[in-house]
Amino acid sequence: MVGLLVLLIVLIALLVSLLGDDDGGDPPAATATSTPEESVLFPPGFGTPGAGTAGAERSPFDATPTPTTSEGPNRGALVTPTSGSDNRLDQPNRGTPADGASIGPPSARCSETCLVRVENAGNAQKILAANGTRPSYTSSNWLWTIADPAAVAGISSVLDTEVIRQTSETLALYMVTVPDGVAEQGAVENFGAVLDSVDNYRLVQAERVPANVRVVIETGLIVEKVAPAPPSSFARPDERQSLDEGVIGSLAEQIDAGAIEAMVQEFQATGSTDGSGIGTRYYTTPGNQVAADNLYRKLESYGLDVWYEDFVTPEGLLLVNVIGELRGSDPSRIYGVMAHFDTISDSPTSVAPGADDNATGMAATLEISRILAGYDLRYSYRAVFVNAEEVGILGSDAFAREAVEEGEPWEGVFNIDSIGSARNGDQIVLNATGNSVWMADILARVDDAYGIGQSLIIQQSAGIVADDNKLRDHGIESVLVARELYGWSPLHHTSKDLHERVSIPRVVTATELVLLTTASLLI
């Protein structure tokens, strides 16, 4: 009986084995269940007790939107984007789409770098920053930004997102705002191609750059330039050092003569269409806005908060000044360095390289900004790049008017213009009048204290006219720093104002003088 029972059990086991394994091999491995990759990207601190209300877990949608620093839809503190596809909230393996593939919901599918509209809800700007981008234009309800496919997927998983077009190009993009109660009257369509329309906002691609906005503003509409895409890389330091009197003298060691020379060559070539490396930044040409976009991205890559200040020329062209800021611990004072970035010549729309006048001033201002970005400052510093200096000093006039209207606490601005001439040796002309004379005096004291060794010609002449004059006219104290004045140089305002005729060592020493003087005021 027992034997029969054992035999029955063996037969049942064989039968089960035969039915469960048809090929007689090893049992099949368990089928893996794919786990979707995390795509909801929140900035560090969200969902962590203590990030908001004490002891409470905080949702990413509970955050207060980033406060603006002044009135107007396109001004305010920029959230610093995280650079690199492998540095977004410690999620290095989010993956990238295969060639030709699109990712994201249907309204936000992006197969290459895209221009997208994102709802400005909760902590939207922080979510953009966590995905390596920032707004190119900000309104109360919407943000327009440039983002790669992986970033679009991450953003659209959290926020309502609409792809406007598959490109990162913003050169010809302008935002038109239709105020309540104002009829468009066809002005927007006459201005350019409408790429996006939502609420009172019309994103327009203008037919030419810089755009003539007369048809828009005469209708009562508001038009602003859209900012460029974020820089692809960042040179900003991981940590900022304390700036005090003991380190000021060593700042000169950080000046990179090779970088200054490269920037002079780069700006000389801006606007070139024939591969010659000689272009134009004349205010009516596309090269002018290309230069503005380049300045914007360079300042941002150093770690400054950057914005455009728009103004309209008498003939109706919308131009921009470029402003970058390092905010100090005490924002009650602002010190700045200024340079104009437009050029002129006898053939201004085709060849106006402006290497000395004023790519040298542009390069010096950028280098000063890069170095100061490595330090914690007591007072705020701003880099100011003004436009249309060569055709009536228009940009600095618009800048000064806005600064006064906003009540900004400017203490002094160093205007760097044409500092690369070798004709007169170490000579530098400093010009200031009225209440600004102290700025020329402090430059002279710094030159002596640190042994820079420049031959300073200190002027108090209202007849020397440059951007600093307009600032003084509006009550902002300013001084000119130049090696050549208008009418002195045989190269200025000609097609021969080229990089090979610029003395880079002279640019470096002038940069050192302004850098050390500015730094001494920021502590």
Quick structural overview:
With 523 residues, the chain is an alpha/beta fold.
Textual characterization of the structure:
It is built from 13 helices and 18 strands. With 523 residues, the protein is an alpha/beta fold. The protein has 3 domains: 42-47 and 56-168, no CATH class; 174-230; 241-521, 3-Layer(aba) Sandwich (Aminopeptidase). The strands form 4 sheets. Strands 10-11-14-12-15-18-16-17 form an 8-stranded mixed sheet, sandwiched between helices. β10 (305-312) and β11 (318-326) form a beta hairpin. The termini are far apart.
CATH topology tier name of the largest domain: Aminopeptidase
Say which CATH homologous superfamily of the largest domain is assigned: Zn peptidases
Query: Quick one: CATH class of the largest domain?
Result: Alpha Beta
Overall, the morphology is globular
Structural class: alpha/beta
> If you compute it from the alpha carbons, what radius of gyration comes out, rounded to the nearest whole angstrom?
29 Å
Which labels suit this protein?
single chain, alpha/beta, 3 domains, 8-stranded mixed β-sheet, 19% strand, globular
SSE topology sketch:
Layout lengths: L1 H19 L93 E6 L4 H7 L4 E4 L3 E6 L1 H8 L4 E5 L7 E5 L9 H5 E7 L2 E6 L7 H4 L4 E4 L15 E2 L2 H4 L8 H13 L16 H17 L2 E8 L5 E9 L7 E7 L14 H18 L2 E2 L3 E7 L7 H13 L3 E7 L10 E5 L5 H13 L5 E5 L7 H7 L4 E5 L21 H18 L2
Parallel strand pairs: 9-13, 12-14, 12-15, 15-18, 16-17
Antiparallel strand pairs: 1-3, 1-4, 2-3, 5-7, 5-8, 6-7, 10-11, 11-14, 16-18
Helix pairs in contact: 7-9, 9-13, 10-12, 11-13
